[in-house]
Amino acid sequence: xxxxxxxxxxxxxxxxxxxxxxxxxxxxxxxxxxxxxxxxxxxxxxxxxxxxxxxxxxxxxxxxxxxxxxxxxxxxxxxxxxxxxxxxxxxxxxxxxxxxxxxxxxxxxxx
Amino acid sequence: xxxxxxxxxxxxxxxxxxxxxxxxxxxxxxxxxxxxxxxxxxxxxxxxxxxxxxxxxxxxxxxxxxxxxxxxxxxxxxxxxxxxxxxxxxxxxxxxxxxxxxxxxxxxxxxxxxxx
Lengths: 111, 116
Known about the structure:
The structure holds 2 protein chains of 2 kinds. Chain A is mostly beta strands.
């Protein structure tokens, strides 16, 4: 069990560019969550997958955001036309029954 | 809707002193409650959780928390602070329970500093 991994760990991009983050959950965990954490705040729920199905999306997830989990294993989160307000830590978590295990996060800085 | 309020964005205690981090929640259904710790540039680690049963919950690293329904509180304590306890602590609530797929609602966090 190597834990939840996220890549890249850090991403700096210019406003208007597209970025994609990857999350690899713990093997055999069927549930995968994305959260966003801004400076000085707690994580906020973005979206959730059970296997490959995206079952819930927060209203925080604007139409510039899209998440996929094509084979029910890893997941990607894409942000199109990034804005400075998108600067945050993006956290991924996975679970099998109950407890969510968090990855180290991807820190996005939009300049 | 559920929410969590953490009283005090920053708490500073001396090494060896009692740690008390305050958390109050709001929930229209029986809550499941969590405390997470986050070290710099790392993800969240679960310290402890309350689901059902015993209201005093013991976690890792000597931390414990007590669920008080009448006060809608879930304060985190540790009898004797250690330098390694310096981190950000998040209280969180979930509505459908730890065995479900429910999202977690987090408080805004309390930064714990330890004075030598």
